[in-house]
Automatic annotation (TrEMBL):
The chain crosses the membrane at residues 97-119. PANTHER family: E3 UBIQUITIN-PROTEIN LIGASE RNF180 (PTHR46717:SF1). One of its GO terms (cellular component) is endoplasmic reticulum membrane. It is an enzyme of class 2 (transferase). Its EC number is 2.3.2.27. Keywords: Acyltransferase, Membrane, Transferase, Transmembrane, Transmembrane helix. One of its GO terms (molecular function) is ubiquitin protein ligase activity. GO terms for biological process: norepinephrine metabolic process; positive regulation of proteasomal ubiquitin-dependent protein catabolic process; protein polyubiquitination; serotonin metabolic process. It comes from Mytilus galloprovincialis (Mediterranean mussel). This is E3 ubiquitin-protein ligase RNF180.
Length: 133
């Protein structure tokens, strides 16, 4: 499927998007570079027209490609919802204590096992929560 069609299919729920053909959940979208090159070589006019159409669609409304959430992303979202969802019930000091505990948990897990990108996204999550408190 083309990128614009995949983005349209996944607009409502990026993480649990079923394939329109077989109805299985889409786990990952990988661009087929050889197919793109072949299409560009054999059908240059149609390829350029379709590319213009895709760019127009992507400029109008951006939606991420469908994918599955990693376990860490799910955990981060659960923690964010728990802290922010209870924000009105908690005093700010208590919420900040929970957040500090989460920060310590992130620091305990070695960067080598998770990777720098995951740690940076976790730090961004902490900064988002801190600004909400």
């Amino acid at each position: 499927m083309c990128e614009a069609c995949l983005r349209r299919v996944g607009q409502k729920n990026v993480y649990n998007t079923p394939c329109p053909m077989c109805r299985q959940l889409i786990i990952q979208c990988i661009k087929k570079t050889e197919l793109v090159k072949t299409l560009k070589d054999f059908y240059p006019e149609e390829y350029r027209a379709r590319l213009r159409e895709q760019r127009k669609y992507l400029n109008d409304k951006f939606s991420p490609l469908p994918h599955r959430r990693t376990a860490l992303a799910q955990t981060q979202e659960d923690i964010r919802n728990r802290i922010l969802g209870q924000r009105n019930n908690l005093q700010p000091q208590r919420a900040k204590i929970y957040l500090a505990g989460f920060v310590l948990l992130i620091m305990i897990v070695p960067v080598v096992s998770l990777g720098k990108a995951v740690v940076n996204s976790a730090i961004g999550l902490v900064q988002d929560i801190w600004t909400w408190l």
